[in-house]
Amino acid sequence: MSHSIKGKTVVVTGGSKGIGKGIAQVFAKHGSNVAIVARDLNVANRAAADIGSNVKAFYGDVTDGDSMKIVARGINQTFGSIDVVCSNAGIFPSATLENMKSKDWDIVMNTNTKGTFHTVQACLPYLKQAEYGRIVITSSITGPVTGYPGWSHYAASKAAQLGFMRTAALELAGDNITVNAVMPGNILTEGLEGLGQDYLDEMAASIPMKKLGSVEDIGYAALFLASKEAGYITGQTIIVDGGQILPEN
């Protein structure tokens, strides 16, 4: 599987930290050229340097369609192709329904959902030129499967991504482009580490496998969906949660 991804150009939005950086690390490890796209170019450059010489950082704002078209053109000029797009950029601020402002809702939807649309649309001309194109969306179990207090806007954005995925998969099937999604559960990222070990232990105890997932766990799911061998899979989701959603109570 990893051989078919070697030499391919992979775009990872939100790739400078967290799950995005884990995705970038896995693809780079298996010989892909990786373009990390982020709004903070300094952080993205540090992430690229950490990962390897086949990784480059690019400035891009997924909420701005023109910005994404510029960065997609730059990535294609740098590497000569765009073969895989990992639409990963996302935010998850907390706000209850009672206190949420309209602008709070819009900020989350613009980044998580409209950002996926902008990313895919900007990269589409180059994906169509590839031997085969792959789009992998980072959704979540929160929204499509579960709920969490304070995250109604986040949950809605993640469920909306899957509706987008299914129709995009239909539209792009004739171009030999697949569109799938990874749905993470509780993954150990920089943000969670700051909550303290007691909190992390409590989270892990609620998962059947008794541990939090790693960012690389999501990266390997994305790697599979991006491979040549996964070419007959489209419009589908893979839940990566250590069994978190399985218990009835």
TrEMBL record:
Organism: Robertmurraya mangrovi
EC number per UniProt: 1.1.1.100
MF terms in GO: 3-oxoacyl-[acyl-carrier-protein] reductase (NADPH) activity
Domain of life: Bacteria
Name this polypeptide is given: 3-oxoacyl-ACP reductase FabG
Keyword Nucleotide-binding: no
Protein keywords: Oxidoreductase
Family: Belongs to the short-chain dehydrogenases/reductases (SDR) family.
Tagged with keyword Iron: no
